[in-house]
Structures are given as C-alpha cells and as structure tokens.
Amino acid sequence: MHVILRYEIEKALIEGDIQVADVPTLWNAKMKEYLGLEVTEDRLGCLQDIHWSFGMIGYFPTYSLGSIYAVQIFTHAKENIPNLDEHLAKGEFDVLLKWLNKNVHEQGSLRESGDDLVFDLTGKHLDSSLYVKYLTDKYTAIYDL
Questions:
Q1: 71 and 17 housed in the same domain
Q2: End-to-end alpha carbon distance in the chain
Q3: How far is CA 53 from CA 56, 91, 139, in A?
Q4: Which among 59, 2, 12, 58 has a CA at the least distance from the CA of 34?
Q5: Torsional sign, CA 82, 83, 88, 92
Q6: Which PANTHER family match (predicted)?
Q7: How far is residue 99 CA from its own chain's centroid?
Q8: Considering the entire predicted model, what is its pTM?
Q9: In this structure, are 83 and 128 located in the same domain?
Q10: Alpha carbon distances (Å) from 34 to 1, 2, 5, 45, 88
C-alpha cells in the first residue's frame, strides 16, 4: 500500500491536482484510509524515505517491479541449477552468481526490455502471480496463517 500511496500522491503532484504543501495532510489521510494508521510526525509519514527529497518522482514503484522480476528469475534459476537451495544454505552463492552472469547480466543490454529478457530466459512474460505466490507463502509461514 505504501507504493500505491506514493504513486497516487506523485500522480496528483505531476497533474497539478495538489501542491507540495498538501502532501503531508494527504499522506496522513491515505494512511488512515488504507491501513488504519495514524501518522504522528512527517518523518514517520511522507518524509520516511529519501526518494522525494532527492527528486526521485516515479522511482519508488521500480522496487516492486524489481521484486516481481527477481522472483520469476529466481524461480527459473531453481529449476535450472541442481540443489540451488542447498548451495545457498551453505553460503555458496557463486553457483547462482555464475548462472545470473551468464543468463541475465550478460544478456540484459542485448534485449529491448526487461520483459523481453525475462521472456527469453523463462519462456513467459513478466508474471506477477509468481510474486503473489511468493509473498503468500512467505507471510503464511512467518505469521502461521
């Protein structure tokens, strides 16, 4: 919801629907509406990270995109590298790094887009359902849901 909240506020800023001075009030209202949270200080609300202070408008959602790509690529890596989980559990990251270097890093700039890269690698376009499954499995285990 943090990413959605930031997107909505950034869009409103860019479209001229709100002014910078409106951001703290709007942020606090949306946190209350979306998450039921009361924001007591701007440093815990709209100023909690560095993106806006650095002028990085529209940047924050790239974290979500990167996570979606990462899950799809890692899922494919696990299908193609025997015993990958065991290697990682032992701190043997070089196996994965070599695979990533060959299949992702060396190929990235040769593709038109990230979707082309992930399609060429996995045979599927970017698929957020894998990320949703990853999050569901992770948080089900952590919170015993």
A1: no
A2: 20
A3: 8, 37, 31
A4: 2
A5: negative
A6: CARBOXYPEPTIDASE 1 (PTHR34217:SF1), METAL-DEPENDENT CARBOXYPEPTIDASE (PTHR34217)
A7: 22
A8: 0.76
A9: yes
A10: 7, 9, 9, 13, 37
| 31: Cα within 13 Å, side-chain hemisphere | 18
107 burial class (0-12, 13-18, 19+ CB within 10 angstroms)? middle
Q: Looking at the structure, tell me whether residues 32 and 74 fall in a common domain.
A: no
d(CA 69, CA 51): 22
Which residues, including other chains, have CB under 8 Å from residue 127's CB and lie 6 or more apart? 68, 72
- Convert the chain into a string of H (helix), E (strand) and C (coil): CHHHHHHHHHHHHHCCCCCHHHHHHHHHHHHHHHHCCCCCCHHHCCCCCCCCCCCCCCCCHHHHHHHHHHHHHHHHHHHHCCCHHHHHHCCCCHHHHHHHHHHHHCCHHHCCCHHHHHHHHHCCCCCHHHHHHHHHHHHHHHHCC
Please tell me the distance from the alpha carbon of residue 128 to that of residue 31, in angstroms, as a whole number: 25
pLDDT tens readout for residues 106-139: 998 899 999 999 999 999 999 999 999 999 999 9
* 49-87 residue pLDDT tens: 888 888 888 888 888 899 999 999 999 999 999 999 999
Q: Do 22 and 88 have their domain in common?
A: no
